[in-house]
C-alpha cells in the first residue's frame, strides 16, 4: 500500500496534484492506475473477494481493479474469474492479470439477460463498480450522474428497483432483471460522488444487503466527493 510522504508531487498552476505519491507507487509496482490502492484498501478491510471467486468489474478501464481483483483470486490452480466491462476499449494488463480475466467493451446500462447468461452463467460473488462519467465540475450534475451509474450497478447486481420477491427469484436465471447476477452472501461496491439522494440510495440498499457501509479511500484525492458505498452479504 501507499504510504510515506517522501516523494514529491507535481502540482498544476490551479493547484491540482497530477502525479502524487499513489500515482508514483502504482507505476513503480506495475499497476496501471492509482485506483488500484482504493480496491486494495476496500479488500483489506472487507475481504470481499475470495480465492477462486467470480468478480464482475463494471467500468474496468484502464484495468487497475482487474489487476487487484485477479491478484485476490489467489493462484491460478484455485480457479475463479474476473469479468471486466467498460465503454472504452480496454487491454488486459500484463502484470497481475492472467487468463481468468475477460474484458468486454460495452455500455453497462445496455446489457440484458442474454449478456449475463453468456458471461456470468452461474452468477458472481462480487460486483464492483468504479464507473464514472466524464465529470463536468458541476457538483449537482456530477452527483446525479454518478448516482445513476451506481443504480445501474445495483440493478445488475440484485435487480435493484425491479427485483422480484425472494421466492420468485429462485425461478429466474442469473442476470434476469428480477434477480441480478450477485449470489446470496455476495457483495456490491459502488463509487458515488456524494450529493442529493446518496443517503436515500444507501437506505434502499438495506432491503437487499445484511449490512450497508461507506468507505472513503486514502487514495481518493482530498478535493474529491468520491466515496464508495458497499452492500455486504446479499440477503
Ligand atoms: C474511474 S474509471 C475506472 C477505473 C478502474 N476501476 C481502474 O481501476 O482501472 C471509470 C470508468 O467508468 C467507465 N464508464 C462510465 N460509464 C460507463 C458505462 N455506462 N458502462 C461502462 N463503463 C462506463 C469509463 O469509461 C471509465 O473507464
UniProtKB/TrEMBL annotation:
Task: Give the residues annotated as active site.
Answer: 191
Q: Which GO terms describe its molecular function?
A: rRNA (uridine-2'-O-)-methyltransferase activity
rRNA-binding: present as a keyword of the record? Answer: no
Show the Gene3D superfamilies listed in the entry. Answer: Vaccinia Virus protein VP39
On the tree of life, the source organism's domain of life is: Eukaryota
UniProt-listed CDD domains: AdoMet_MTases
Q: Does the keyword Transferase apply?
A: yes
Give the Pfam families listed for this entry.
Answer: FtsJ
Ribosomal RNA methyltransferase FtsJ domain location, by residue?
A: 31-234
Keywords (A to Z) from UniProt: Methyltransferase, rRNA processing, S-adenosyl-L-methionine, Transferase
Per the record, the similarity remark reads: Belongs to the class I-like SAM-binding methyltransferase superfamily. RNA methyltransferase RlmE family.
Output the HAMAP family linked to this UniProt entry: RNA_methyltr_E (MF_01547)
What name has this protein been given in UniProt? rRNA methyltransferase 2, mitochondrial
Q: What organism is listed for this UniProt entry?
A: Micractinium conductrix
Amino acid at each position: 500500500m501507499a504510504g510515506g510522504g517522501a516523494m514529491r508531487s507535481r502540482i498544476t498552476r490551479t493547484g491540482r496534484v497530477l502525479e502524487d505519491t499513489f500515482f508514483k507507487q502504482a507505476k513503480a509496482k506495475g499497476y496501471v492506475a492509482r485506483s488500484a490502492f482504493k480496491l486494495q484498501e476496500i479488500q483489506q478491510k472487507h475481504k470481499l473477494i475470495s480465492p477462486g471467486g467470480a468478480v464482475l468489474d463494471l467500468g474496468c478501464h484502464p484495468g487497475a481493479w482487474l489487476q487487484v481483483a485477479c491478484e485476490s483470486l489467489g493462484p491460478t490452480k484455485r480457479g475463479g474469474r474476473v469479468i471486466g466491462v467498460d465503454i472504452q476499449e480496454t487491454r488486459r494488463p500484463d502484470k497481475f492479470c492472467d487468463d481468468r480475466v475477460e474484458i468486454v467493451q460495452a455500455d453497462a446500462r445496455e446489457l440484458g439477460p442474454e449478456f449475463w447468461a453468456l458471461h456470468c452463467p452461474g452468477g458472481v460473488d462480487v460486483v464492483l463498480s468504479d464507473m464514472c462519467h466524464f465529470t463536468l465540475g458541476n457538483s449537482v450534475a456530477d452527483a446525479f450522474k454518478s448516482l445513476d451509474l451506481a443504480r445501474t450497478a445495483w440493478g445488475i447486481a440484485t435487480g435493484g428497483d425491479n427485483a422480484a420477491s425472494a421466492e420468485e427469484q429462485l425461478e429466474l436465471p442469473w442476470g434476469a432483471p428480477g434477480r441480478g447476477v450477485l449470489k446470496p452472501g455476495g457483495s456490491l461496491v459502488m463509487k458515488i460522488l456524494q450529493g442529493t439522494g446518496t443517503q436515500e440510495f444507501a437506505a434502499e440498499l438495506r432491503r437487499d444487503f445484511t449490512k450497508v457501509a461507506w468507505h472513503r479511500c486514502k487514495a481518493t484525492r482530498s478535493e474529491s466527493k468520491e466515496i464508495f458505498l458497499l452492500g455486504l452479504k446479499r440477503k
